[in-house]
């Protein structure tokens, strides 16, 4: 049945059919994105800085490649692709959850300053070995802790007796984000060791160049848990976009939902920043594009963001590795592409936002 | 479900908005709450729905259907009474629906999606509904006059259209108590009358308690069974509509001269506003 035939609906069957059509559309988009993800995953193994021909890559897979090619393909390219997919997926879902929670299509981890907080935590761990107790997880754990503290601070500043307002939240995010940005620069200024300084700068620009399989495993677990929590709360996220009062009147346990989603968000952003540094605007662009495409129903939008975020990040990483003679930091790249898009949304939607 | 409110007080900071309200409301009634701007009508509604926490007093429900509540909520029952404060958010949404005064929806949900959100607190009831209840959502949309809107996005609707969508959503909740905050605001005349007829039908046929905050004296006089007249956080008078809606009371509370007449054709009171009261000297004067 065509959509026009169902208008105006004359029975419950028509309504069920409308719901079904919308669901099939979303599922179609999801399947399409899964295919693209697999394709890009596969193809990106063949491109890279080192000059390895497709035949040599296939030889590596069959276990017949020489040791250099085997090392590059299996220990450099593949973990890197896997990490970029995880980070892209995580940041897109985290951004989506933020936007629903704050009823604002412009909210994202980087706008709310929590990426800066996480980067500051990672920098503390790198510079002073704080959190060494956690061993190889120390940078991730510190990124997560600082990420969550930042989130709480932003939330505390923006919350008044009458609730949390969007504009206060964005202002608080900008203020706290720039504070932690400043603190990070402060740390960098006083570090003597050139190697330490280099890896600190590396964090703040974002890159997948140093990702290995351990990074992938750690981030997959952390980001996976966060994404799962958000997915399980997708119905509540739908209702939260109506505003706290209406959501509560419809039966949503708001404090519980908000705490869970914010924790999940901090977990995801902490996990992502820990392996890749700060990468902005992914959490803004991906949910926004697909919300206009398939609608804001978070049950589907969440799954879509996972694959779309992964695709976006893998493509960005391919560009980052191959566009110039030396590698472009991916955080720089996403900002260069993301900032104009951000301006575009602001201009187009300025009447709806506040 | 019966509602009993005893010495209800509420303060925003140091300003006391509700100064000890006592009344009760029975199922099958349409209860109108009338009063000037800022007299605490909306605050009262929000207290009943647990959106605001009263500073003192009790709001209790009696004679409720035990099967809808979870065990955790039922543990709090004392002598067949339940304080709304002790009812979990989800359980309260199963029996009480609210149509609030304003709604800003920034995400482009379709009308159908928005209306289906009313089923959040009892998803199984809609999904596994018996055959005769399968078309619940359709009936709600039809009753609220929102059927022709199902394809639109909620953020593109006009004020009146959005109001109808919110009423449909409240009906999907299948409540035993329906709280309406200025339900006729933004609605054109035909939809106002349709809504009020729907509300009276819900009350009389389905034994639902409807509490309605309104500024429209004409609609209140015509469709409400009982009226609570409020002034500055206090109840001036409460009782059957004919007893409360008198020329003297309206003069005192609203500072307008009215003509209240029994109208045979509409089977109710007809209120005509004649002008401002004789001793009214403008805003702010006592």
Task: Kindly describe this structure.
The complex is a heterodimer of chains A (354) and B (286). Chain A is mostly helical and 354 residues long. In chain A, 75% of the residues lie in helices and 1% in strands. The two termini of chain A are 39 Å apart. With 286 residues, chain B is of the alpha/beta class. The N and C termini of chain B lie far apart (39 Å). Chains A and B meet through α1, α9 and α10 of A and α3, β6, α4 and α6 of B.
List keywords for this structure.
heterodimer, A: 354 residues, mainly alpha, ABC transporter involved in vitamin B12 uptake, BtuC, two-stranded antiparallel sheet, 14 helices, 75% helix, B: 286 residues, alpha/beta, six-stranded mixed sheet, four-stranded antiparallel sheet
Number of strands of chain B: 12
The CATH superfamily title of chain A: ABC transporter involved in vitamin B12 uptake, BtuC
Q: What low-confidence regions of chain B span 5 or more consecutive residues with pLDDT below 50?
A: none
Give me the Rg of chain A, rounded.
21 Å
What is the fold named in CATH at topology level of chain A?
ABC transporter involved in vitamin B12 uptake, BtuC
| Beta strand % of chain A | under 5%
Largest sheet data of chain B? 6 strands, mixed
What strand order characterises the main sheet of chain B?
6-7-8-3-9-10
Largest interface: A-B, 38 and 45 residues
The total domain count of chain A is 1
* Average pLDDT reading of chain B: 86
CA-based shape of chain B: globular
Which structural class do the helices and strands of chain B define? alpha/beta
Rg of chain B over CA atoms, rounded to whole Å, is 19 Å
> Biggest sheet of chain A: strands side by side, in what order?
1-2
Question: pLDDT below 50 for ≥5 consecutive residues: which ranges of chain A?
Answer: none
Mean pLDDT of chain A: 84
Total strands of chain A: 2
CATH architecture of chain A: Orthogonal Bundle
Order of helices and strands of chain A: HHHHHEEHHHHHHHHH
């Amino acid at each position: 049945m065509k959509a026009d035939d169902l208008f105006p609906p004359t029975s419950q069957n028509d309504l069920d059919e409308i719901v079904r059509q919308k669901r099939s559309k979303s599922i179609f988009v999801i399947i399409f994105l899964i295919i693209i993800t697999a394709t890009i995953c596969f193809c990106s193994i063949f491109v890279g800085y080192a000059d390895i021909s497709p035949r040599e890559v296939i030889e590596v897979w069959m276990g017949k490649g020489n040791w250099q090619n085997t090392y590059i393909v299996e220990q450099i390219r593949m973990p890197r692709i896997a990490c970029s997919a995880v980070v892209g997926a995580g940041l897109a879902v985290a951004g989506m959850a933020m936007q629903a929670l704050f009823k604002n299509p412009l909210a994202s981890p980087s706008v709310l300053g929590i990426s800066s907080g996480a980067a500051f935590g990672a920098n503390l761990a790198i510079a002073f070995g704080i959190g060494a107790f956690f061993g190889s997880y120390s940078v991730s754990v510190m990124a997560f802790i600082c990420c969550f503290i930042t989130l709480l601070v932003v939330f505390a500043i923006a919350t008044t007796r009458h609730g949390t307002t969007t504009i206060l939240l964005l202002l608080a995010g900008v203020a706290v984000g720039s504070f932690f940005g400043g603190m990070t620069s402060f740390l960098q200024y006083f570090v003597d060791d050139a190697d330490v300084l280099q890896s600190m700068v590396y964090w703040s620009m974002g890159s997948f160049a140093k990702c290995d399989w351990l990074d992938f495993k750690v981030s997959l677990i952390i980001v996976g848990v966060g994404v799962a929590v958000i997915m399980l709360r997708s119905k509540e996220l739908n209702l939260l976009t109506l505003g706290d009062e209406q959501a509560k009147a419809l039966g949503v346990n708001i404090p519980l939902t908000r705490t869970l989603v914010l924790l999940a968000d901090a977990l995801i952003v902490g996990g992502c920043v820990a392996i890749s540094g700060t990468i902005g605007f992914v959490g803004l662009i991906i949910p926004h594009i697909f919300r206009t495409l398939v609608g804001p129903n978070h049950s589907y939008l969440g799954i879509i963001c996972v694959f779309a975020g992964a695709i976006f990040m893998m493509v960005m990483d391919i560009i980052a590795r191959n566009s110039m003679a030396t590698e472009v930091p991916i955080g720089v790249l996403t900002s260069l592409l993301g900032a104009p898009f951000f301006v575009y949304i602001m201009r187009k939607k300025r009447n709806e936002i506040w | 479900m019966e509602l009993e409110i005893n010495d209800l007080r509420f303060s925003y900071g140091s300003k006391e908005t509700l100064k000890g309200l006592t009344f009760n409301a029975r199922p099958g009634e349409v209860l109108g709450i009338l009063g000037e701007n800022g007299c605490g009508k909306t605050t009262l509604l929000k207290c009943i729905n647990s959106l605001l926490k009263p500073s003192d007093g009790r709001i209790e429900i009696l004679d409720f259907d035990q099967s809808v509540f979870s065990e955790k909520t039922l543990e709090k029952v004392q002598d067949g009474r339940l304080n709304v404060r002790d009812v979990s958010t989800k359980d309260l949404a199963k029996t009480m629906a609210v149509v609030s005064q304003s709604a800003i929806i920034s995400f482009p949900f379709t009308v159908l999606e928005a209306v289906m959100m009313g089923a959040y607190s009892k998803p199984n009831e809609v999904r596994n509904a018996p055959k005769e209840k399968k078309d619940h959502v359709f009936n709600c949309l039809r009753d609220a006059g929102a059927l022709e809107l199902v394809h639109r996005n909620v953020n593109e609707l006009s004020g009146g259209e959005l109001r109808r969508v919110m009423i449909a959503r409240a009906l999907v909740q299948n409540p035993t108590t329906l709280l309406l905050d200025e339900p006729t605001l933004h609605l054109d005349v035909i939809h106002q009358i349709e809504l009020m007829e729907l509300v009276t039908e819900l009350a009389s046929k389905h034994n639902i308690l409807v509490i309605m905050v309104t500024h429209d004296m004409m609609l209140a006089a015509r469709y409400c069974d009982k009226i609570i007249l409020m002034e500055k956080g206090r109840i001036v008078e409460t009782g059957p509509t004919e007893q409360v809606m008198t020329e003297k009371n309206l003069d005192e509370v609203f500072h307008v001269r009215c003509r209240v007449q029994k109208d045979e054709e509409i089977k109710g009171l007809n209120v005509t506003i004649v002008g401002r009261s004789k001793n009214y000297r403008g805003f702010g004067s006592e």
